[in-house]
Amino acid sequence: PPPPPLCGAVLLEGCFLGEYLGLLPLLLAVLFGDPGGSGTPVRAGAGAGMWLWEEQGGLLGPFSFILLLLLLVTRSPFNACLFTGSLYLLLRLFSFEPLPSRRALQVLKPRDRVSAIAHRGGSHDAPENTLAAIRQAAKNGATGVELDLEFTSDGIPILMHDNTVDRTTDGTGRLCDLTFEQIRKLNPAANHRLRNDFPDEKIPTLREAVAECLNHNLTIFFDVKGHANKATDALKKMYMEFPQLYNNSMVCSFLPEVIYKMRQTDQNVVTALTHRPWSLSHTGDGKPRYDAFWKQSVFVVLDVLLDWSLHNILWYLCGISAFLIQKDFVSPNYLKKWSAKGIQVVGWTVNTFDEKSYYESYLGSSYVTDSMLEDCAPHF
């Protein structure tokens, strides 16, 4: 028998999955017309389902999935269309337009070639997140540096990866409990393998680090771990004081909230989302984070949802220019999928000669590394 008419009041109580799939292209056509922005109308009929899933560069795939899921759960085309359409309209209403791709390329490939970005300033070659690391990275041929932004208890923006000073300095305690005056007395080279080569280092302020990078013509990847409001305010001040940052820096974060807030604060800043698959359920070296099976399982599910959201929705919402992802998940096909969306991919942390050659010669993709000089283990 012919399928029931496409009407919001019709409940398809007896439909099979195949009939839902047959209706899917028509429902999407009613909702979106051409949501992918390709200029090609949504096609119905034979093969339409496959075409929907193969469409590149837009939102059609993710919203096809959402609509299909809602159809199966609610068994109501009206409710499914209403909810999916509302999500789509909200996304279009509150999303940011991405910057022109040439702006991202100015940061990622400023010399028209693959960039090598020194992770934390090159944490294997010099004490991480220090002015010495920045100088050493420039000396060793890095195109740019990735620097971690944190704050002291009195609100001074500084360079620090952890929320405590224990791992990298001769002190102990949480950053939120230490003033800048106390922080300044610590030695950030105390626990580094080359500590004797850097006897007089201090933990730098954000401004000191920016000035040093610009002095050495290095691009900057500002890595923000949290404090979205404070971080965006501090970075906005840097962009106002040093306007050249608009063309040679990027703000990146694992937290979409930070990137969205940065785009709200200044839409001219190049931004990127950072991601490591399974980061909620596993540590950087692959070990489960939780002993309890139920808790570990919950975070595995959350990892799947986060990964799907980043790759399908959040990149569009934030209007990012680049996607930073753990090196083992980068492939030619992965690069192609992001390129179709106008987004550059940066792999991290690429620490061996063979991996660097693969990125430079085969993938043609920029990368983040702990050392510009030799192979080394990753610094999590």
From TrEMBL:
Example of a GO cellular component annotation carried by this entry: plasma membrane
Alphabetized Pfam families for the sequence: GDPD
Superkingdom to which the source organism belongs: Eukaryota
Reactions this protein catalyses: N-(4Z,7Z,10Z,13Z,16Z,19Z)-docosahexaenoyl-sn-glycero-3-phosphoethanolamine + H2O = N-(4Z,7Z,10Z,13Z,16Z,19Z)-docosahexaenoyl ethanolamine + sn-glycerol 3-phosphate + H(+); N-hexadecanoyl-sn-glycero-3-phosphoethanolamine + H2O = N-hexadecanoylethanolamine + sn-glycerol 3-phosphate + H(+); N-(9Z-octadecenoyl)-sn-glycero-3-phosphoethanolamine + H2O = N-(9Z-octadecenoyl) ethanolamine + sn-glycerol 3-phosphate + H(+); N-(5Z,8Z,11Z,14Z-eicosatetraenoyl)-sn-glycero-3-phosphoethanolamine + H2O = N-(5Z,8Z,11Z,14Z-eicosatetraenoyl)-ethanolamine + sn-glycerol 3-phosphate + H(+)
Subcellular localization, as worded in the UniProt entry: Cell membrane; Cytoplasmic vesicle membrane
Keyword hit for Membrane: yes
Cofactor section: Mg(2+)
EC id: 3.1.4.44
Entry protein name: Glycerophosphodiester phosphodiesterase 1
Organism name: Desmodus rotundus (Vampire bat)
